[in-house]
Design goal:
The chain is built from 17 helices and nine strands. The protein has about 425 residues and is of the alpha+beta class. The chain folds into three domains: about 200 residues, Ribonuclease H-like superfamily/Ribonuclease H (Nucleotidyltransferase, domain 5); about 50 residues, no CATH class; about 80 residues. It has a seven-stranded mixed β-sheet with strand order 1-2-7-6-5-8-9, sandwiched between helices. A two-stranded antiparallel ribbon has the order 3-4. It is elongated and about 95 Å long. It starts with a helix and ends with a helix. The relative contact order is 0.08.
Length: about 425
């Protein structure tokens, strides 16, 4: 055994108990050392260095409150009243909160999906001061600046402790809390409104996409020129953070890109504040503003009714129905049927468009189930089938791959309805 151990040692092998006893070669230790990047000498003009790797600026955006908006908002306008009803809770009470308490908050991060390896490198906190809207931004140019960045950002938010975000409940706030915990930075409790939820209620059916930039264009009437796409922002910051101080050309190019990222972040917060005030105005005067703001009437009406504003909800649905909104007509029919007002139900059904599949189907349902008239119901079911098949043929001619097929669920439902009505007529 001793001879075997001697031979193994001659080959350079050692026992496990001896590992670590032999010093590493100096050149190998040198290779294992993590290179330390030299801190950059500054950032963009107008930014002040407040700590190593950490910079800030405050910008006057040019957006301000007018006299008609007042200096408070109604907190219950942003509560999810329908969800509260489903949970068996009473509607949120009326509570006026000064606009000066609001922080409009947005982060730019090294990743778009969160996760333990994602950090925030740029924060924007917008707030109203004397009627003007100001935005303070905080930026770090490298990872060692994160503790100071978090501490400064949290203190900014604490000065206006009611946060407004866009998808912040799912992304910005969990990321902020996670990074603060990892850096031993205490996070106070904040009030919070996530404006994405209200935007989806009001405009998803009208415009489809509810991204903040889609809302800028469709609701606020503003577009962006020469803006940085959001998916590029993490890559741009990593390139700037990793650029060596000595590499002047790469540093200048990355610095210019960071200027565009900072402007993108600033515009996000400014648009968030404008959209917030637009939603507040709609909730304050729904019957006055729904049409000009192109709000989806049924969702707004249901929110009003859940908030014990039924009179406004019914008035809104009647206005939407008069304007030919099928969603409003269907919801009115449901409410009138629940109340047992069949005369009003008949009036609503008569107002539905009989040149659309949806209108004919609703008329067929009404005559089959409420009027007990399968003959008239079959007429409308047949007409719905004819309209659907014409739409399919038209889309097929245009070679639209997303066109409804003749074996679609909608077509199958119509066939079942026709068969059922024909059986009823055969029995009678």
């Amino acid at each position: 055994m001793k001879g075997r151990l001697s031979r193994l040692k001659e080959m350079g092998l050692i026992k496990a108990s001896e590992i670590g006893s032999r010093p590493e070669k100096p050149e190998k230790l040198e290779r294992l050392k993590r290179p330390v990047r030299k801190e950059k000498s500054g950032f963009l003009p107008g930014w002040e260095r407040i700590a190593p790797h950490t910079y800030t600026r405050t910008v006057e955006t040019g957006f301000s409150l007018d006299e008609n908006r007042g200096d408070c908002f109604e907190e219950s306008h942003f509560a999810n009243q329908r969800l509260r009803r489903k949970k068996g809770l009473v509607p949120a009470p009326l509570t006026a909160i000064p606009l000066s308490r609001l922080s409009f908050f947005d982060l730019e991060t090294t990743g778009l999906s969160g996760g333990a390896g994602t950090i925030a490198f740029l924060a924007a906190v917008g707030f109203f001061e004397g009627g003007s809207f100001l935005v303070t931004q905080v930026f770090i140019d490298d990872f060692p600046g994160e503790p100071a960045f978090l501490d400064f950002t949290v203190n900014l938010l604490a000065g206006h402790p009611y946060l407004v975000t866009y998808n912040g409940a799912a992304f910005d706030l969990p990321l902020l809390r996670t990074r603060c915990i990892m850096n031993a930075v205490p996070v106070p409790e904040f009030g919070h409104i996530d404006l994405l939820h209200m935007s989806r209620k009001f405009w998803r059916k009208t415009f489809g996409s509810c991204s903040l930039q889609a809302m800028e264009l469709a609701v606020l009437g503003e577009g962006r020129e020469d803006d940085v796409p959001g998916f590029l922002i993490p890559r741009l910051w990593l390139a700037y953070s990793g650029a060596a101080v000595a590499d002047v050309d790469a540093l200048e190019a990355s610095l210019a890109a960071m200027g565009k990222v900072a402007d993108h972040n600033l515009l996000d917060v400014r648009s968030l504040a404008r959209l917030f005030l637009r939603v507040e105005g709609i909730m304050k005067e729904p019957c006055v503003r729904w049409e000009s703001e192109r709000v989806y009437v049924p969702h707004l009406a249901m929110e009003l009714m859940a908030a014990d504003r039924s009179e406004e909800g019914y008035a809104l649905l009647e206005e939407g129905a008069a304007a030919g909104d099928h969603g409003a007509l269907k919801l009115l029919f449901r409410f009138y049927k629940r109340a047992g007002d069949m005369e009003a139900c008949g009036r609503v059904i008569a107002a539905m468009d009989e040149n659309s599949v949806e209108g004919c189907v609703e008329k067929a349902k009404f005559h089959e189930h409420s009027r007990r008239d399968p003959g008239t119901a079959l007429v409308y079911a047949e007409k719905a089938k004819t309209i659907l098949e014409a739409e399919v043929a038209k889309e097929a001619e245009a070679r639209n791959p997303s066109a409804p097929k003749t074996d679609s669920p909608e077509h199958e439902a119509l066939e079942k309805r026709r068969a059922r009505l024909m059986r009823k007529l055969g029995r009678s």
